[in-house]
Design goal:
Elements lengths: L1 E5 L4 E6 L2 E6 L2 E6 L5 E5 L2 E7 L2 E7 L2 E6 L2 E6 L2 E2 L1
Parallel strand pairs: 1-9
Antiparallel strand pairs: 1-2, 3-4, 3-6, 5-8, 6-7, 7-10, 8-9
């Protein structure tokens, strides 16, 4: 599936991933290929995703995630670097 992580200032990540885990408002959740359509609020925490079996992490301060037809878009409020 295709993942984009964006803030108002920059594109943090864009590319194909095999899974992604998000800090949801009601707890963390994972998205895999062919997931049902979804829109969810995100709290501060870690977005973790796998690219070629390597885990990568991004700390966000909150935001929104949308999942539709194997495309996952994260609109993050901010990134902690």
């Amino acid at each position: 599936m295709y993942l984009q992580i964006l803030t108002a200032e920059k594109k943090v990540f864009e590319g194909d991933v095999t899974s992604a885990t998000f800090p949801g408002a009601d707890g963390s959740f994972q998205i895999l290929n062919n997931h049902a359509p979804l829109i969810s609020l995100l709290t501060h925490g870690t977005v973790e995703y796998k690219v070629n079996d390597k885990r990568q992490k991004v700390q966000i301060t909150g935001g929104v995630v949308e999942v539709l037809k194997n495309k996952v878009i994260v609109l993050a409020d901010g990134i902690k670097e």
